[in-house]
Amino acid sequence: ARLLHGSIFAKVIEGLRELVNEATWECSGNGITLQAMDSSHVALVSLVMRSEGFESYRCDRNMSLGISLVSMSKVLKTMGKDDSLTIRVNDDSDSIIIAMESQNQDKFADYELRLMDLDSEHLGIPDTDYSCAIKMPSSEFSRICRDMSIMGDSVLICTTKEGVKFSAKGDLGQGSIRLVQTTNIEKEEEAVIIEMKEAVALTFAVRYLSMFCKAAPLSPQVGLSLSEDTPLMCEFKIAEMGHVRFYLAPKIED
Amino acid sequence: MAQQKSITFFFRKK
Questions:
Q1: Residues on A contacting B at a C-beta cutoff of 8 Å
Q2: ipTM for the predicted complex
């Protein structure tokens, strides 16, 4: 799998590695997918990178590759900003080859990372017709998570026709941030768009939402989909090639 | 107090 802009792949890894330290990559002719839960089984990430999004891609037989995302992140940090990246696994090999090339082809770096034998548990994510779909700038969402974490461990997300409200309370007191829907969309990247069938009010652990925000550099906009008593879906699109979707189980009154 | 649910509570195992 070759990417002209290797930095896209580095951003994907940076976006996942805090939530899941290691994961099994499923490779097929259609591309690369990954599904993994965090160690507490509260959140789940689902990654799709379609073959046509790569400069070149070939996969002769389906493979499951157990990879340490922490190690891969270290290797990818050695990559130059404009380097291209090729990822390769040879038949019957127990390692993955990560090759980087500088833009003017005067530097070539090769790394081999040992593959891991991982016990991965696969979940079926049901198709959900969410009550609310919010789009907002990724940077805004990151900031809201950071700001809400000052006040408490949990954030309550409430949507109405007018907008979306994030609130948190704790020992210090309480705080809230309300975003109203953008009425005059000039720049789509900066817009807040709320599609609502039903109002929702759901509580989530801010710590996980903040971890999802590590994937924010992938896309200028984030999508949040919500339904009562259903995990939140937080989506970052990966250019033309796919997406990273994070799911977070809500906190529910017993 | 709201209790944190597990993701496996919502998504079935394959």
A1: 37, 40-44, 121-126, 154, 203, 205, 230-231, 247-254
A2: 0.94
